[in-house]
Each structure stands twice: as C-alpha cells, then as structure tokens.
Design goal:
Helices cover 41% and strands 8% of the residues. The protein starts with 10 loop residues before the first helix and ends with a helix.
C-alpha cells in the first residue's frame, strides 16, 4: 500500500486507513477520462495476475462523457506526465485537448472534436464503460462506481442509462444525492474551480464509499 506524501487529498487516500488493504493501486490520471481508466483497469488485471477476483475490489468514478483519451508511446511529447504506470505498462496517454469543449490545446488543437464530433465521443465513452464493467463481471471481480457530476446522466445515451440502471447495486450515492459534484456543492465542499471536491468533500465521499463496500 502506498499513500501520497503529506496530508490526504483524494477520497481514496481517506479510504485507505478504513480498509487497510494489502495492496493499493491508483490508476487515475489527472485530466484523464473513462477510456483511459477503463483500459488501465483491464490491462492491470490481465497482466498482474496476483490480483484475483477472490480478494480484489475495483472502485472508479464515471467522469464526463465528452473526454477522449488516446493511447500513445510512453515517450510521446504530449503524453500525460502524471501517468506513473507508463514504464510498467509500456504505453502512455494523451489527455490534453481531449475534451469535447476543448479549444486549440495540444495535441489535438480542436481537430479531434471537429472531425470526430461530440456524439461519437459520448458513444465511444459509453462503450468503453460497458466494456470495462462487462470485463469485471465476466471475471467475477467485485466493483463499485460513482458519478462525477449530473451531466453524465443527462448526456448518457439510453443504452448506457439502461446498462447502469441494471447495476444499481454497484452505484454509490451520497445521502440520496446521485453524484459527487451536487453533494459537495450542497455542503460547500468544492475547490476554487467550483467543480472538484475539496479536502472535506473527499473525506466525506470516502465515508460513503466505505459504507457501501463494507458489505463486500
């Protein structure tokens, strides 16, 4: 198990002392979305066979469906430098400029959004989520997920809504509030960007995650 130096900042950091896992792996990438997260989860479980379905729990956020992550060589000039698994996995991720609302930022400079289109980005994200969850279920891995914000539900195509609805037992909510953003906004637990949870918000989220997974 490892923890970032200094004070805990993310819900996973606050969760660790509660569950005291033998091994903790963080596959999140700042700025990354569902495609990278899902692929990294599957790749980890396929290549690190000491993670077995008997004693492994997968927790993840479903983030904005307008993000498009692209795999790349680990030494690509635009690869996300925060992806600490690039050497171990042998690949990196392009995350900058991959938002559906992105402007002229590298490496795509708006061309991805122009040529692919927002609808296709949402569809690809939805299929990626379904692929990831289907993989976990087919291999009997325990998992739970949260929603980052309310736009995920409103933007989701009907097939994804139905798919997630059928897995409501795996869906972590916060006193009936369906997503992190709304819950933290109601309690004034947002950072200065008025979107991401602050330290108090992450601590409270960890409490709800622990309550949900305590049944596993």
């Amino acid at each position: 198990m490892h923890l970032a130096a200094g004070q805990p900042t993310m819900w996973s950091h606050f969760l660790l002392p509660k569950i005291n896992p033998k091994v903790f792996v963080n596959l999140a990438i700042p700025g990354g979305g569902n495609v990278a997260a899902g692929y990294n989860i599957v790749y980890l479980l396929e290549t690190k066979k000491f993670f077995t379905s008997d004693d492994t729990l997968i927790l993840f956020n479903i983030t904005g469906l307008d993000r498009f992550d692209t795999m790349c060589y680990k030494d690509n000039a635009h690869a996300n430098v925060s992806f600490s698994w690039n050497n171990d996995f042998g690949f990196g991720w392009l995350t900058e400029g991959g938002f559906g609302h992105a402007g002229p930022r590298p490496p795509f400079k708006g061309l991805l959004q122009k040529n692919m289109g927002l609808d296709q980005m949402i569809t690809f994200n939805s299929l990626s989520l379904i692929n990831t969850i289907t993989y976990l279920e087919a291999n009997n891995f325990q998992y739970a997920f949260m929603l980052m914000d309310q736009h995920i539900e409103s933007a989701s195509p009907d097939f994804l809504k139905k798919f997630l609805h059928n897995r409501s037992a795996h869906y972590i909510t916060f006193d009936g509030v369906p997503n992190m953003y709304e819950y933290c906004k109601q309690n004034n637990w947002l950072k200065k960007d008025q979107f991401h949870p602050n330290q108090e918000g992450h601590s409270a989220i960890a409490d709800f995650v622990y309550q949900h997974i305590d049944k596993y």
